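note to self: the first set is below, dont mix up w the second
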Amino acid sequence: MRPTALWKPVATAAFAAIAVASIGATLTDLGPWYQSLREPSWKPPDAAFGVIWTAIFSLAAISGVLAWRADRSVRGRQRILGLFAVNGFFNLLWSLVFFKLQRPDYALVEGAFRVHDASPALVGFMVHLNTLGKAEIVTLYGAS
């Protein structure tokens, strides 16, 4: 296999993960409105979220590459890209709704949709591809 064929999916997944994380970070506003929210005692400290999301996006990128390599069909690869794109979109939508529109109620509905429909579709498709990718994607979307 050509070296570019090995690294192109890695570079693409890394770029996509960094792009979604960067856009999400620009949508995140920890200003006065956020600081005024009542938070549950079990919420991690704000400083932990950078580490947590870095791990989540790293696992997503690795899972995407493993899935890409496991499914060599055009249709399967299109589905992989589509499912990751939909989940990335909903990740950004949540940040927009919660932080910019300051609507935690709508964000809760969006999160419920993602947990009920979008993420399980991705997990369900990934399950048949490979064990490591499955473990990573289940960990990733089990945490979101």
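second set (the one i keep forgetting abt)
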Amino acid sequence: MTRLRSRLEENLGWVVLLALVVGCLVVLRPFVSALLWAVVLSFASWPIYRRLLRWLGNQRTLAAALMTLGMVLILLLPFLIVGLSLADNVREITLDRRGAARAPQVADQDAGRWGQGGGLLAKPGR
């Protein structure tokens, strides 16, 4: 009886462990892409980290902080530049649209002058 109970507890332990592993994988599934990128970037930047570590006199915390700051700048700087450029373009588009909204009023004023022989075409040298 003791042997049967021991065997049952062992099998139940494996089932619980398997359920725990499956649950962890389900939770981590959305982050697999980010984790793979982290592995690639860590592997690719390891020689730079080792060189920086040697240059800083084996100060691991400082080397890790500088590497982190460098990675953040390398990865986020292009997004910052694109964002600022996009903000400038939105401002220009907004100003153009405001100008286009006022354009019919200006055109009406110019149309009156054109009928009287005025306007850009009637004046040579412009």
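remember for set 2: The mean pLDDT is 83.
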